[in-house]
Amino acid sequence: MWAVVLAAGGVVALPAAATAAPAWETASGSQHTLADPDTAQAWGFNGGGQLGNGTIANSSIPVPVTGATGLTGLRAIAAGGGGGYALRRDGTVWAWGLNNVGQLGNGTTTDSVVPVRVAGLTHVRAIAAGGGGGYALRRDGTVWAWGLNGVGQLGNNTTTDSVVPVRVTGLTDVRAIAAGSFSGYALRRDGTVWAWGLNGDGRLGNGTTTTSLLPVLVPGLTDVRAIAVGDGGGYALRWDGTVWAWGRNNVGQLGNGTTTSLVPVPVPGLTDVRAIAAGASSGYALRWDGTVWAWGRNNVGQLGNGTTTTSLVPVPVSGTTGLIGATAIAGGGGGGYALRWDGTVWAWGLNNVGQLGNGTTTDSVVPVPVSGITSATAIAGGTLAGYAIVSDWDWDWE
């Protein structure tokens, strides 16, 4: 539910059989074969099919997200409270896991332990996951949502759940989306941010605590390039490299050493930021120098800085020699994830059901490598599970 939208954090037919992998012959005589291109791996809790591998057994190491013939050709992945979502290059969206309120968007309320297609969605360019449903941004700039809607998180001016995607009312020209447990967010091409749904603690950032069934403007934000959402509030990255936050701040989620704010406030000390993400009660920022910074709750090592001391201001995510060379970040329910330039994935924080993916169930207050992943291209964090898109390249030299 804290997925990065950088973009980050909430389907009926099985995938068709993959076509033969293409091969290219170079001038030097080598042959480059793409085997199972851009597939998904998942690890952690699986009691409701969150790993999408056809079982309900937890896994402390990555396992393939599968289907009748596999799920390939992926360009984005997102994770919610009860399952995962994947966007294929053909513009279709696939989902797996719990479906009691229509989270899978396939017209049913039947759980699925393998990916199923979200009904009626085509030409999708980005996805996000909330606590009880999913969101999709189409290439025409419209936003669509499905699943739980008790407090207006579908943004269609009702409180009726939907088992198929419905359009978020009034939003056009959107370039990015994000989702919290009970709220949705959109970044328009003009650099403004819009939010809808539950507004306790000011998570809609519009100066009130009034829930909204329709998108409302988050005031005071301009030139925004990316957004992310935690359990009780939002984050915005501006083009000048600064980060802004709003909403609940009981454990320092806003990173500014103060109390809850109903409108965006700057996260101090952060400059030259290229990406942001959010955990349940922690914020994360990736700077252009490849370092990761975190703030907020830290009782199980969510900040990855070698301690369990909560911080009201950003601190560097560290390790034996520090975490450097990161190119993407994601937040989970009890920790964070980082993708490095070399294709490896690193995780820290809570690990009671294997969500760190390192073959143990021992929490870690510093980043540890996720086992067996060396060619990841994207990552996402769910409540109790981690996800990655991997590209398996097979070089055959002649």
Describe this entry's structure for a reader.
The protein has 398 residues and is an all-beta fold. 0% of the residues lie in helices and 44% in strands. It is built from no helices and 31 strands. It has strands at 23-25, 31-34, 39-44, 59-64, 74-79, 83-88, 93-97, 112-117, 124-129, 133-138, 143-147, 162-167, 174-179, 183-188, 193-197, 212-218, 224-229, 233-238, 243-247, 261-266, 273-278, 282-287, 292-296, 311-316, 326-331, 335-340, 345-349, 364-369, 376-381, 385-390, 393-396. The protein has a four-stranded antiparallel beta sheet, with no helix packed on it. The chain has a four-stranded antiparallel beta sheet with strand order 5-6-7-8, with no helix packed on it. The radius of gyration is 19 Å and the shape is globular.
Task: Provide a quick synopsis of the model.
It is built from no helices and 31 strands. By secondary structure, the chain is mainly β.
Structural class category: mainly beta
Largest sheet: 4 strands, antiparallel
- How widely separated are the two ends? 46 Å
Give the integer mean of the pLDDT values.
89
Shape: globular
User: Segments where pLDDT lies below 50 for 5+ residues?
Assistant: 1-36, 394-398
In what range is the share of β-strand residues? 35-45%
Strand order within the widest sheet? 4-3-30-29
Nearest-angstrom radius of gyration?
19 Å
Helix content: under 10%
Number of helices: 0
**Strands, total number:** 31
